[in-house]
Specification:
The structure is a single chain. By secondary structure, the chain is α/β, with parallel strands linked by helices. The protein has helices at about 1-5, 15-25, 30-40, 75-80, 110-115, 135-145, 155-160, 165-170, 200-210, 220-225, 255-260, 275-285, 295-305, 370; strands at about 55-60, 60-65, 95-100, 120-125, 150, 175-180, 215-220, 240-245, 265-270, 290-295, 310-315, 340-350, 350-360. Strand 3 (about 95-100), helix 5 (about 110-115) and strand 4 form a beta-alpha-beta unit. The radius of gyration is 22 Å and the shape is elongated.
Length: about 375
């Protein structure tokens, strides 16, 4: 079921996939699937908060739905409460929420107080709050108020929904997604009069990655060669992510789009710092996820330094020869120590193949000494 949920990202047949998920679910899971669908509406809009969805049920019927729309705005539980036709319906009702309800006062009051005040009989949540100071606290508070609590329903799906936020909370570093469109022979360079390697369908799909990232990072050479805009062009609400340029020389064209267009105030330039130092600085700015779009040297540095958490590759059915490698850098010492993806999905988009997977956990455990010395 987790794979079906994962396919909802950028998928044009969302209704079909949603129905397939429901068909393979239990009675306890179905309301949580609806809560997950709500939560996905907030992806890319809520940082530095997680994306969360909630539904209120009674007598086997969903009475109201809600999702968190952004930091400082009401949480999903409160949005669902506001969507009720009659607030008295909460008496004896069940609340399903994808993440453990907040139990402390932050930008908004704790949701546990509202849950108790409105007389819910039961609360079901999927993922536990990754913050050790909060994990399990809501369950204790609600049980003390004689509210039945069930946790861990579709826990894997609810946790995966906020993988970047979970990673940032645990490490202070942004969750890094390496994205690349390449030829069969692993090249990204093309003829200057024919810039695109992958299909229009793949490029449209990749826009969902941009829309859900807090920041998009490219190297200085990409700015000099391609002069990208790095803007988000999708249907529906989306915010413009930060645009980050990582450059050692600082030699950037003054009229570069990133420095001169209407989003120039959303551009950050890091000169002379290592890629890890750059990412650490972004983490301190509450930037929880970074999409690295290139070029080859920047992607190579990210993989060499064990900074990548997820890789999304669009493989076009053509060979270019020569050109620029998609991932440069020093690389691995031998094929046995190659960087591997786990739980990868393979999907045809237009004429291309999309490969999307999480980088194996042991990949980041130790950086080879030859790379440390580089």
């Amino acid at each position: 079921m987790e794979e079906l949920l994962f396919l909802l990202e950028g998928e044009t047949h969302k209704e079909t996939i949603y129905k397939a998920m429901v068909a393979h679910s239990t009675a306890e899971e179905r309301p949580m699937i609806s809560a997950l669908a709500e939560a996905r509406k907030g992806l890319g809009l809520t940082s530095p908060n997680p994306a969360v969805g909630a539904v209120i049920t009674k007598g086997g019927r969903i009475l109201a739905r809600g999702f968190h729309r952004g930091a400082g705005q009401p949480h999903a539980e409160i949005e669902a409460l506001r969507a009720l036709k009659d607030i008295r319906q909460t008496r004896g009702a069940t609340l399903y929420v994808t993440l453990e309800p907040c139990s402390t006062h932050g930008r908004t009051p704790p949701c546990t107080e509202a849950i108790i005040r409105h007389g819910f009989a039961r609360v079901v949540y999927g993922a536990t709050d990754p913050n050790p100071a909060h994990a399990g606290r809501a369950e204790r508070i609600l049980k003390e108020a004689n509210i039945d609590v069930a946790r861990g329903v579709l826990a894997a799906e609810c946790t995966a929904l906020n993988a970047p936020w979970n990673h940032w909370m645990a490490t202070g570093l942004p969750y890094v997604i390496a994205k690349c469109g390449m030829s069969l022979d692993g090249r990204i360079g093309s003829h200057p009069e024919s810039r695109w390697i992958t299909s229009a369908a793949s490029r449209a799909d990749a826009m969902y990655l941009r829309a859900q990232a807090d920041a998009i990072l490219v190297g200085g050479e990409t700015v000099r060669t391609d002069n990208p805009h790095l803007t988000v062009r999708t249907a529906g609400p989306a915010r413009q992510p930060w645009r980050v340029v990582w450059t050692r020389s600082g030699n950037l064209p003054k009229n570069a789009n990133l420095l001169a267009d209407k989003f120039r105030d959303r551009t950050l330039v890091f000169e002379g710092s290592s890629l890890r130092e750059t990412l650490a600085a972004l983490g301190r700015m509450e930037i929880a996820s970074v999409l690295i779009e290139g070029g080859g040297r920047t992607l190579g540095e990210a993989f060499d330094r064990r900074l990548v958490n997820r890789a999304v590759l669009y493989l076009a059915p053509q060979c270019l020869g020569g050109g620029t490698p998609a991932v440069a850098g020093l690389g691995v010492a031998d094929s046995g120590s190659g960087i591997r993806l786990v739980d990868a999905t393979y999907r045809r988009i237009g004429s291309d193949l999309k490969i999307d997977g999480t980088v194996a956990a042991n990949y980041s455990a130790e950086i080879p000494s030859r790379i440390l010395a580089a």
